[in-house]
Design a protein that fits this description.
two-stranded parallel sheet; 156 residues; Glutaredoxin; 5 helices; 33% helix; Antioxidant, Horf6, Chain A, domain 2; alpha+beta; single chain
């Protein structure tokens, strides 16, 4: 499981009741031969959904399809809301999780579509220098288009 490899845990959440979740998990296993390896939280009163802004305006108590990435300190780092009509894109969630972990551990930023950026590929963006000495040192240590836009390949 890709999420486990990244030391991430999945949790499902729904405003349905526990028996609905049990039936849903069983149906998926019986009909699709897929195990749901994570807990699913029953929020039948919708309290958590309301706090997280997941109740779809104009659709009664229906929730949006949301993804939250929460770091080990409990801080929400990413929120993606999908309309009910659109399923989640798990590859994008994994990409975002990897990018946040790399950003945190290396103090860099990822360009759009990383690691397949049209301009710099899988390289990462260095933060802008805070002083002239750092800016000059970067001239030698990193590629770039200007002093403020430097990037490099990370060592694996």
């Amino acid at each position: 499981d890709e999420f486990k490899k990244l030391n991430a845990e999945l949790i499902g959440h729904s405003i349905d009741q526990v028996f609905s979740h049990i039936k849903w998990v069983d149906w998926i296993k019986d009909n699709l031969n897929v195990e749901i390896p994570f807990p699913v939280i029953a929020d039948d009163m919708g309290r958590v959904a309301m706090k997280l802004g997941m109740i779809h305006p104009g659709k009664g108590t229906n929730t949006v399809r949301a993804v939250f990435l929460i770091d080990p300190e409990g801080k929400i780092r990413l929120m993606i809301y999908y309309p009910q009509e659109i399923g989640r894109q798990i590859d994008e969630v994994l990409r975002a999780l990897k990018a946040l972990q790399i950003s945190d551990s290396h103090e860099v930023a990822m360009p759009e579509n990383w690691p397949n950026n049209e301009l710099i590929g899988d390289k990462v963006i260095l933060p802008p220098p805070k002083d002239v000495v750092t800016a000059r040192a970067r001239e030698k240590e990193a590629e770039g288009y200007d002093w403020w836009f430097k990037f490099k390949k990370l060592d694996n």
